[in-house]
Automatic annotation (TrEMBL):
Lineage: Bacteria, Pseudomonadati, Pseudomonadota, Alphaproteobacteria, Hyphomicrobiales
PANTHER family according to UniProt: SEPTUM SITE-DETERMINING PROTEIN MINC
Positions of the Septum formation inhibitor MinC N-terminal domain: 11-77
Keyword Cell division (UniProt): yes
Domain Septum formation inhibitor MinC C-terminal: 133-231
Name of the protein: Probable septum site-determining protein MinC
GO BP terms: cell morphogenesis; division septum assembly; regulation of cell division; regulation of cell septum assembly
Domain of life (superkingdom): Bacteria
Subunit: Interacts with MinD and FtsZ.
Matches recorded under InterPro entries: CAP/MinC_C (IPR016098), MinC (IPR013033), MinC_C_sf (IPR036145), MinC_N (IPR007874), Septum_form_inhib_MinC_C (IPR005526)
Keywords of the record: Cell cycle, Cell division, Septation
Record-stated family: Belongs to the MinC family.
């Protein structure tokens, strides 16, 4: 007579890396939220399906202010998946967990494209990593390369985005979003052959389509920062 042996269920642990946008509020919070809402309204879909880390490190706010800030972000459909720099006693059931130790990631989302090419550009004694995209970037795609420059041989569609630690070079039309200097490089620049962007940003300073002088639309341009202001000029 045989006896069936019931096997115990095995629990398996796996590690994965996910990209999140870090939001670091500034006081007064009401003004910061108004600016955030303006950005979201003028760049449709910017926060859609985008996980967010809320960084309140060093921000002199009360527990009440903090919870009000979380509620305000939730009302704007901004999904906070973790909080950095918070008093952990403020975090209760159903609230985002405390996180720390985040680091920049490599390319995380390039669906429906051929594998991009990594290279290094040499400037004197310095070697700067770069990423070459040899196909157009379609709507809904994100190219993220915090290590250096990104070059696109083709166009960037509306609803697509390029995020680079250094400069962005687009040999086609820029209709989506270009975010250069994402790791704090104020010397980064954005170059494109045909400017029709939804949004451009360098080192955290941004301009949306309706804020940019109409004379640059459809032209070959470059953008850079000077004295914490966005500057643009036509390429000869």
């Amino acid at each position: 007579m045989s006896t069936a042996v019931k096997q115990r269920q095995t629990i398996r642990f796996r590690g994965r890396s996910f990209l999140a946008t870090v939001l670091a509020p500034q006081l007064p919070l009401a003004d910061w939220l108004a600016e955030l809402e303006r950005l979201a309204s003028r760049s449709a879909g910017y926060f859609e399906h985008r996980p967010v880390i809320l960084d309140v490190s060093g921000l002199p706010i009360s527990e009440r202010d903090f919870k009000g800030l979380l509620a305000a972000l939730f009302e704007r459909d901004i999904k906070v998946m973790g909080v950095e720099g918070v008093d952990t006693s403020w975090l209760g059931f159903g609230m985002p967990p405390s996180v720390s130790g985040g680091k920049h990631t490599d390319i995380v989302h390039t669906p429906n494209t051929e594998p991009p090419t990594k290279a290094k550009q040499s400037f004197g004694d310095q070697s700067i990593p770069s990423l070459l995209i040899e196909t157009p970037v379609r709507s809904g795609q994100s190219i993220i390369f915090p290590q250096g420059d990104v070059t696109v041989i083709g166009s960037v569609a509306s609803g697509a985005e390029i995020i680079a630690g250094n400069s962005i070079h687009i040999y086609g039309a820029l209709r989506g979003r270009a975010i250069a200097g994402s790791t704090g490089n104020a010397a980064a620049r954005i170059f494109c052959q045909r400017f029709e962007a939804e949004l451009i940003a360098i080192d955290g300073l941004y301009q949306t389509a309706d804020e940019i002088d109409a004379k640059y639309r459809g032209k070959a341009v470059q953008a850079w920062l000077a004295r914490d202001q966005m500057n643009m000029a036509a390429l000869a």
